[in-house]
Amino acid sequence: MKHISLSKITTRGKALYLAYDQGIEHGPSTDFNDKNVNPLYILDIAKKGKFNGIVFQKGIAEKYNKEIRKSKVPLILKLNGKTKLFKGEPLSAQICSVDEAINLGAKAVGFTIYVGSQHEEQMLEEFAKIESQAHKKGLPVIAWIYPRGSSVKKYYSKELMAYASRVGLEIGADIAKINYNGNPKDLQWAVKSAGRCKVVIAGGVKLREKEFLKQAKDIMQASCMGLAVGRNVWQAKKPLEVARKLKRIVFG
Q1: 204: closest CA among 222, 223, 177?
Q2: Which helix (H) or strand (E) holds 160?
Q3: At what angle do helices 209-221 and 184-193 cross, to 10 degrees?
Q4: Quick check: is 129 in a domain?
Q5: Minimal CB count within 10 Å: which of 28, 29, 119, 251?
Q6: Pairing between strand 175-178 and 198-202?
């Protein structure tokens, strides 16, 4: 295994990622308007806001590859996905390979695992193969780890938040992307539970700017590596202004 460096997707050990992999998960009517439905609008925010990475699914990375490479924003390619239409136990299947990600210029790859789903075994097995392939090529792996399924009753409990981050460490992820329950002490325990696996917090649902920035401060004070933010930036009236304030919080 090659030495895995996060230097291409971090700044002084911290990171702020612009997430735009929601289209397949949420559908266009939920999150998008006439502006942000266009991937080039998002890429422009990532470039001007000097984000550490932009998260795309395979199709966008392929069809907008020229512009992504020209922007110099590091590409984080999501390798699996699912729609919201099926209401049963969640399963996010692999739709892109590590080799495809490398050919598209990705600097890291991401993969979602719904721990607690009756399909978690399949997702864990797929992740294991991806982690091995990516690490052999020196590519960092980010695990989106979300407790979901009929057996999971409290998605945002202290126990499950720490469980999610610990799974990231145990399965060999370089970064675990988890949801935050709003309790800074619970998050501190989740970060400790992750050991040497870095923790990044998902931006979550759209909040009022003041509330979101307060949450970002709590996240960074809990020793997280950073945030992967989508809607709270590109749904804002002044996304670059929000990005500027976020960067001040994340990088100091």
Answers
A1: 177
A2: helix 158-170
A3: 40
A4: yes
A5: 29
A6: parallel
Report pTM: 0.97
Q: What angle do CA 157, 158, 162 make, to 5 degrees?
A: 115
In 3D space, the residue among 237, 185, 245, 173 whose CA is nearest the CA of residue 36 turns out to be 237
Residue at token pair 């992750």 = 194
Asked if residue 2 belongs to a domain, the reply is: no
Q: What is the pLDDT of residues 96-139, one digit of tens each?
A: 999 999 999 999 999 999 999 999 999 999 999 999 999 999 99
Give a yes or no: residue 1 inside a domain.
no
Concerning whether 84 is annotated as a catalytic residue, the answer is no
**DSSP codes joined into one string, 36-66:** TTSHHHHHHHHHHTT-SEEEE-HHHHHHTHH
Return d(Cα 89, Cα 91) in angstroms, integer: 7
- Please, are residues 166 and 193 in contact by the beta-carbon 8 Å criterion? yes
Looking up tokens 């030495």, which residue turns up? 3
| 28: amino acid identity, one letter | P
Round to whole Å and give the CA distance between 227 and 74.
15
63 is catalytic: no
Range of the domain at 112: 7-251
| From 14, 58, 78, 177, the catalytic residue | 177
Q: What CATH number is given to the structural domain containing 14?
A: 3.20.20.70
Q: In this structure, is residue 223 part of a structural domain? A: yes
Q: Active site residue: 114, 146, 163, 180, which one?
A: 146
Q: How many domains does the chain have?
A: 1
222's CB contacts (< 8 A; 6+ apart) are 184, 187, 188, 190, 191
**pLDDT tens-digit series, residues 37-64:** 999 999 999 999 999 999 999 999 999 9
